[in-house]
Automatic annotation (TrEMBL):
The chain crosses the membrane at residues 312-335. This is ABC transporter, ATP-binding protein. GO terms for cellular component: membrane. The keyword Glycoprotein does not apply. It is an enzyme of class 3 (hydrolase). Its EC number is 3.6.3.40. Residues 7-246 form the ABC transporter domain. Belongs to the ABC transporter superfamily. Keywords: ATP-binding, Cell membrane, Hydrolase, Membrane, Nucleotide-binding, Translocase, Transmembrane, Transmembrane helix, Transport. Pfam families: ABC_tran. SMART domains: AAA (SM00382). The keyword Nucleotide-binding applies. GO terms for molecular function: ABC-type transporter activity; ATP binding; ATP hydrolysis activity.
């Protein structure tokens, strides 16, 4: 029987390369070995499912990976490994994502709606409602780069709720608006909940989380610390933040450094081995566990890095292009140069064409 879920993430990881300069980034693109580049694992194996009609809260301290996870679910960024299945359209409202800075508010509304599959007629019909909900006045015809963070959030939220997605993802977008707009958003979220929509709600405000969420996932420095009933998880999280606040400045710093080091030194090979062992232990009769885990880790992943084969192909194409450029500059024909490559070192003043008999 098919599992009934709206979102499923399994063993999801996300690795970032920590380049110091743009040239380092460019060099790494062609490099065969990437051992010298420092890495950071923003997510170290997250697994959770979200049921249809459920509102899941994501909590965790700054930099724990909440936005990374919500961006992966909404398809903005790919995971490094793991399985992600999202059944339905997503729409994300985040302070720093989703809006094009150089376009006006009105143009952003059209672009986002078109990307969501709406027709121009549908957008024309919806436009006044979105503008009224966002309540940003004449700014709607100004480029978004001139907006305050509150205005961006209002516009982002207005677009996201009006395009009527199956899954609404709200990443800290309520924290920057004023009280009136906040209430309007809460009403809209409540309406969405009543309609049975699925919502992912990222927030530092436990009050908001407790008011809106059925279930909460606590992400702690790239790991899923706990997932379950809202009250149970927020109580544990409060205990943690209370404990953390009591630490001295040095203890806080040491704690954070230790956690970040774990994220820097995370080994995907060891993690894969661990998952394989756990699966074997849970189902000893299961065959081909290694290849099952390998498929689980890599089959739905779009690689952001060039494979060795592609790198070799790129180099080959580059060398051929350079060769033809040099032949062109030398003034000899390809045939002449192939017969005597030293001609490339002695460019001719006149053009030498191949002998035509
Ligand atoms: N493009 C990137 N390159 C390198 N590291 C990144 C990148 N994006 C995020 N990170 C790192 O990944 C970690 C998780 O970031 P993320 O924004 O997901 O955390 P968060 O829980 O949403 O934080 P906050 O509560 O502050 O919004 C952080 O340590 C962050 O520095």
């Amino acid at each position: 029987m098919e599992e009934n879920y709206k979102v499923k993430v399994q063993n999801v990881t996300k690795e970032y390369d920590l380049f110091k300069t743009q040239s380092e980034k460019l060099r790494s693109f062609f490099a065969i070995s990437k051992h010298q580049i420092p890495h950071f694992w923003s997510l170290m194996g997250i697994s959770l499912t979200i049921q249809p009609g459920e509102t899941l809260g994501l909590i965790g301290v700054n930099g724990s990976g909440k936005s990374t996870l919500s961006n992966i679910i909404s398809g903005i960024i790919p995971q490094t490994t793991g399985y992600v299945d999202v059944r339905g359209d997503t729409s994300i409202v985040a302070i720093h994502a989703g809006l094009r800075n150089n376009l006006t508010g009105r143009e952003n509304i059209r672009l986002k709606s078109l990307m969501q599959g709406l027709t121009n007629e549908e957008i024309d019909e919806m436009m006044p409602d979105i503008i009224a909900f966002a309540d940003i006045g004449d700014f709607v015809d100004q480029p978004v780069k001139s907006y305050s963070s509150g205005m961006r959030s209002r516009l982002g939220f207005a677009i996201a709720v009006h395009i009527n997605p199956d899954i609404l993802i709200i990443d800290e977008a309520l924290s920057v608006g004023d009280d009136t707009f906040y209430q309007k958003c809460v009403d809209k979220i409540t309406e969405f909940k009543q309609e049975g929509k699925t919502i992912i709600f990222v927030s530092h405000s436990l009050k908001q989380i407790e008011m809106l969420c059925d279930k909460v996932a606590w992400i702690n420095y790239g790991e899923l610390k706990m997932v379950g009933e809202t009250k149970e998880v927020t109580t544990k999280y409060r205990e943690f933040t209370k404990w953390f606040k009591k630490l001295s400045k040095k203890e806080k710093h040491d704690f954070e450094t230790e956690r970040k080091n774990v994220q820097k030194n995370f080994s995907i090979q060891n993690y894969q081995k661990q998952v394989t062992e756990e699966m074997q232990k849970a189902a000893p009769q299961e065959k081909n566990v290694h290849s099952k885990v390998h498929r689980l880790f890599y089959s739905s992943v779009i690689s952001e890095k060039m494979s060795v084969g592609n790198q070799l192909l790129t180099w080959a194409v580059l060398l051929v292009v350079i060769f033809f450029c040099l032949v062109n500059i030398s003034g000899y024909s390809v045939g002449h140069v192939l017969n005597d490559p030293s001609l490339l070192m002695h460019p001719s003043d006149v053009l030498h064409l191949p002998d035509v008999k």
